[in-house]
Design goal:
Layout: E1 5-8, E2 11-15, H1 21-33, H2 39-49, H3 53-58, E3 61-66, E4 69-79, E5 82-90, H4 99-113, E6 118-122, H5 128-133, E7 137-143, E8 151-158
Parallel strand pairs: 5-6
Antiparallel strand pairs: 1-2, 2-3, 3-4, 4-5, 6-8, 7-8
Length: about 160
């Protein structure tokens, strides 16, 4: 797969850089805040959503960039039944411009090229509709690490 892939006329998708870990963490929290979560919940999210340099080195992570500005990103994590989509976040002010769709398609193509059989997503309940529109199908739910009783939808996108 090429390192710089035009995603649309106005942005590219490229590999994430280790030195971007903190900026990606902040982007993920701004994106999650779009759903109206309170400050207490978002503070707890920071602990589990921190993008670690080790993850950027060990698993594929890509950013959508326009003119030097990161618009969104995604990353993978190991998953027994395929590969897990660990992150897919978009800056709030560019939601609706196709950045999330372009990142999803890139993730699917990347996972397929790496030989995975499925892309597994543990989604924020508010984001489930996006993943369903992308073709992922529900396969269950998983308890949240942040809040007792909160269930997160688990979806699967076949790659074969």
């Amino acid at each position: 797969m090429d390192d710089l892939i035009p995603a649309a006329p106005d942005f590219i998708i490229r590999p994430a850089r280790v030195e971007e870990a903190a900026a990606l963490t902040e982007l993920s929290l701004r994106s999650k805040a779009v759903w109206g979560y309170d400050a207490s919940f978002l503070a707890r999210c920071r602990l589990v959503m921190q993008v670690k340099a080790e993850a950027l080195l060990s698993q594929p992570h890509y950013v959508a960039e326009e003119g030097g500005r990161i618009l969104g990103f995604y990353g993978f994590e190991p998953e027994a039944a395929g590969v897990g989509l660990d992150y897919l976040f978009v800056e709030p002010d560019v939601i609706g411009r196709g950045v999330g769709t372009a990142l999803w398609r890139h993730a699917v193509d990347t996972a397929r090229a790496l030989g995975h059989s499925a892309l597994i997503v543990v989604a924020d309940p508010n984001a489930e509709g996006f993943y369903r529109r992308m073709g992922a199908r529900p396969i269950g739910a998983q308890g949240s690490d942040l809040e007792r009783g909160r269930l997160l939808p688990v979806l699967r996108f076949p790659l074969e």
